Amino acid sequence: MNRATAARIFDRGTWPEARRIADILRLETVGGVIMLAAALLGLVWANSPWAPAYEALRGVEFGPESLHLRLSLGQWASDGLLAIFFFVAGLELKREFVAGDLRDPRRAAVPVAAAVGGVAVPALIYTLVNLGSPEAASGWAIPTATDIAFALAVLAVIGRFLPSALRTFLLTLAVVDDLIAIVIIALFYTDRLSVVPLLLMLVPLALFTVLVQRRVRSWWLLLPLAAAVWALMHASGVHATVAGVLLGFAVPVIRRRAGEGPGLAEHFEHRFRPLSTGVAVPVFAFFASGVALGGFDGFVSSLTDTVTLGVVAGLLFGKLVGITASTWLVSRFTRAELDDDLAWVDVVGLAVLGGIGFTVSLLVGELAFGQGSTQYGDAKIAVLLGSLLSALVATVILRARNRVYRRIHEEETRDDDHDGIPDVHQRTPTAD
């Protein structure tokens, strides 16, 4: 295949897309730092002399009992605030495939395949580790998630000269990963299903869809409908975060007329992404990360549990094998070529970084084992430990390449014609 026309893995993409992704990455990176601080606060508080106050705070209940919405603060964080997170994820995923670079199937194939591999292999590893523990089998989906905010925050710390293509790939992989996770939650973690509320949910969802398709932005119309969709989804027994994805998919991406300003999906994304990364996810992290380790002996004991071993192995090794192998298979069978600036060791480092699972992993752990159970406590420890190990190993791999990336970065950002667009985005590929 001619190198001028061969598909590229991790290529730079278009300049407008690169600028948009850069804006998203800045917010997600800051959000990852805030979330890390919130998670550490919850973990330290839960293991301090003031742990009863933490548990009391997490257990405070409020909400209308008549609507079955009298929930604890911890439940409001996981069921309510995370719906905002998944709404933004739905917006981003739809935008990527409708108007982003991934509308090209050749570009979409790699991150989609990598996300599928990064879900399947960790789930398989967890299942194999827990073959002799039927009571732990329901946690198979815990190590399948990648936390984009944490992963990008680590990527930012590793080195600012890492290629933007790696960051873009990680962002897209994590968004597709979130979509797969929400499908898993809907299909496999719905214990009871009430058909009437589920059918009634379609009414406000349809009204919301009609309004946004007509480019209506009035919050006093849209927010009550969105709340109704969420409440009815919650009452149906399907996890309420699914409502966030459905609402995100309903929002149109393409502008109705040229020159009318940002599309509605972009408008909502700008409004809700700061709320998601700066408030919703950190609050969830604060309430979800508070697990009592039980001292050194309790921590060591949890490390021998098959739930812990399965989750850690799935995050650290499953993501590495699943993402790397899927990417290689796509390149092998489509004859796509790795971008000239990158090497396969970069893909390996990125795959290990994909083992940082937090937000969705903790949510799945709660759904699988239930709040307050010993297995859920072990799952929390495993998610924290597996994410930490993945971050450390990825740092060792990618930092070794940082000096090379510095040189690449200097070449990419050169703007010799001073038109505000890096020359690398204006370069026309030539055949060898």
Automatic annotation (TrEMBL):
The keyword 4Fe-4S does not apply. The chain crosses the membrane at residues 29-47, 67-88, 108-128, 140-162, 169-189, 195-212, 219-235, 241-258, 279-300, 306-330, 342-369, 381-398. Residues 412-426 have a biased composition (Basic and acidic residues). InterPro entries: Na/H_antiporter_dom_sf, NhaA. It catalyses: Na(+)(in) + 2 H(+)(out) = Na(+)(out) + 2 H(+)(in). One of its GO terms (cellular component) is plasma membrane. Residues 412-432 are annotated as: Disordered. This is Na(+)/H(+) antiporter NhaA. It comes from Saccharothrix espanaensis (strain ATCC 51144 / DSM 44229 / JCM 9112 / NBRC 15066 / NRRL 15764). The lineage of its organism: Bacteria, Bacillati, Actinomycetota, Actinomycetes, Pseudonocardiales. The gene is nhaA3.
